[in-house]
Design a protein that fits this description.
256 residues, alpha+beta, 5-stranded mixed sheet, two-stranded antiparallel sheet, 9 helices
Length: 256
């Protein structure tokens, strides 16, 4: 007798990576903007949990304990000082919100406009020795939801033949790379990088130079350098992952 139980695997969404369509762009860019805004929380932790900040706060509380005549006065004053510190930290981290608000169509095409500065979205792609710069936007979907995006600017050197592309001076600048918060640390981001590197090589050749754009979406560090160590650590990890993916694919290509 056959079973009529539905297959539970039929309802599991599939993970796919593809080029973003025009309809996908707003959602993809919003995901990038969200990742920039989320840096505000990291910046606040960097300030509040830094040994210098904790030492100064402890010193301030010790001084208040000496100066305040009673426990209720101490509690009230300490609460006021704490609130003032939190407001100051929030103000110091507001730059990430302003940066996130600037992520959009104008940001996507910035730097490759063909007209005068300030023409913005109306400017067309800049020509680079006969070929236009372009931005490749890849998205990863879990079912119908976009959960990851990578944006790569391709800068061709104008060489089109196979032999000349072996000595190519073309470049690929990675301008954004992010995964929705709840899907991070599950290899979704690495899969995006692998697909981006593969497509970039197919487009501009094996010898293309791939690196992070110095002005990529998450590059801004608004805090004094004293508090930027976690940001710098993330930057190093991203660079190392890109180098690892490029090296792995180069080895696979050479072994064919």
């Amino acid at each position: 007798m056959s079973s009529n139980k539905p297959d539970p695997h039929l309802d599991i969404p599939t993970l796919t990576t593809s080029h973003a369509s025009d309809d996908d762009l707003p959602e993809a860019l919003q995901l990038v903007a969200d990742s920039v805004a989320q840096q505000r929380q990291l910046a606040a932790r960097c300030i509040l949990l830094h040994p210098l900040s904790l030492s100064l706060y402890a010193l301030a509380m010790a001084i208040l304990a000496k100066l305040c005549p009673s426990l209720p006065t101490l509690a009230t004053t300490a609460s006021g000082v704490t609130m003032a510190v939190l407001v100051a930290v929030r103000w110091a981290c507001n730059g990430y919100i302003e940066e996130a608000e600037g992520i959009g169509k104008r940001w996507l095409i910035s730097g490759r406009g063909g007209g005068e500065e300030g023409e913005g979205e109306e400017a067309g792609p800049r020509r680079q020795e006969g070929r236009a710069m372009e931005d490749v936007v890849l998205v990863t979907r879990w079912g119908g939801e976009i959960i990851g995006v990578v944006i790569v600017r391709l800068i061709p050197d104008g060489k089109t033949s196979k032999s000349s592309r072996q000595d190519s001076k073309s470049r690929a600048l990675f301008r954004a790379w992010t995964v929705k918060l709840r899907y991070r640390y599950k290899d979704v981001g690495r899969g995006l990088l692998e697909e981006a590197v593969r497509i970039t090589r197919e487009t501009l050749g094996e010898k293309i130079t791939m690196e992070w754009d110095a002005q990529h979406a998450n590059s801004r560090q608004n805090l004094p350098n004293l508090f930027n160590r976690p940001f710098q650590s993330r930057e190093r990890l991203a660079k190392k992952m890109l180098q690892d993916v490029v090296s792995e694919q180069s080895s696979e290509f050479s072994s064919r």
